[in-house]
User: What shape does this take?
Amino acid sequence: MTKVNVAGIDISKKFFDVCMITNGEHQQKQFTNDATGIKAAAQWLKKEVHCVMEVTGCYYMRLALYLQQHGFRVSVVNPLIIKRFSQMRLIRAKTDKADANMIALYATAEQPEAWTAPHQYSVTLQQLDGISEQLSKQHTALSNQLEAFTQSGMIEKGTKQLLLKSLKLIRQQQHSVEKKTDELIRKYHGELIGCLTTIPGLGNKTAAMLIVITDGFKKFSSHKQLSAYVGISPRIFESGSSIRGKTKLCKMGMSRIRALLYVCAWSAKRCNRACKQLYDRLLEKGKAKKQALMAVANKLLKQAFAMAKTKENYNAGYVKNICL
Assistant: This one.
């Protein structure tokens, strides 16, 4: 096996630790996560080194972009992969240096694929989605607070007006974010959003979010990968002849899109022929309604993946051939 020179990088808000393995020799160093530290790290690292780091919020992006622009091979991996890799080796230490070393060992063993920098509009869409989520949480919290204060029977007029004014402002901000998101999606994914919204039961909001979280469905090569990412793929729990656990959803994905797909499933089980047939068949087998609805949500996701890859509008017969 060819010996590969790697650098495992563990990133936090203020610092990042680097473990560089070259010709079997380990070297470790810490840098500040700012322009000065990133430049110093690039000078310290050797050009033939494969740099591997985890997706850590937004803190990895600046370093990954700088290293890639300066000729380094860069890979960005899911933190869960590193966690499982560490557990497989029964490693119990949890420090920044230990994590950097573990990422370097993973890079040596697996040699992950090179990372491709996202387009600016894609990053903007993800940021707008994050803002939308926070605004939604704020709106829910204030609405609950207003209801609680009102139910107490002792809310002053000024306090109620303040809460109503805040809720109105949040709704305006939500509308602004939705408008900006829709403009970007129509500009860069106009054909795709048009195809997805022809699927009976799949609404515009859900289609838009699918485009955002998948970067226009470019991140996945199969609908199974997408289902696992979203968290609606079934998890089978069986071992040998004695263990027969219930099949459950693998909820390691994104709760917001799961919730939207679940709502869409209520409509799809009535107006989407393939989804209706699936729903009725599962109920006949004695499955619970909620379980059948999640199966419909998974079917919608499969149909969306098929439409995204073919760039064609929904056709019940065609979808049946490629999705079932």
The first helix runs from residue 35 to 44.
